[in-house]
Amino acid sequence: MKKIGLFYGKNTVKTANVAKKIQEAFGDNEIDLVTVEDAWKKEFESYKYLIAGTSTWFDGELPNSWDELMPLLNTLDLKNKKVAIFGLGNQKDYPDNFVDGIGILAEVFEKVGAKIVGFTSAEEYDFNHSLAFKDEKFVGLVIDVENQAKKTDKRVKDWVESLKKEFQ
To answer: Which domains are present in the chain?
Structure first.
């Protein structure tokens, strides 16, 4: 088993594509990809570092795969573990709850003792409100493939470089 587990929903195709980009940027040998549909408590607790990927559905909701996992997430013991979160959203069609999924996951992971890392700038985004926006930054990597697809690869590369430093 590797020291980094990257958790994402297998039925959210765009999120899965970004997860694979993150794995490639780290180097395939650094990260285990774990679908949340197949994850148990022991998977989350066995990695030294975690990366969680989610999209935001409808008006600020988690996809079913993460939503159904919330009771399990609330029982985790992630003290002394670092968690980075990435998420997909659409800032033009959903400016009032842009990437709320990131914020929802960050709150749960913090509640079970994890330290959230991988904050990113909110510059270059145009939104009204986001649960992922704290202290003038996003609490993770924000990807908008609908409106800023050309920026995805650079954002992933830059984020992974910062995580390599934080995951030490």
So the answer is: 4-166 (3.40.50.360)
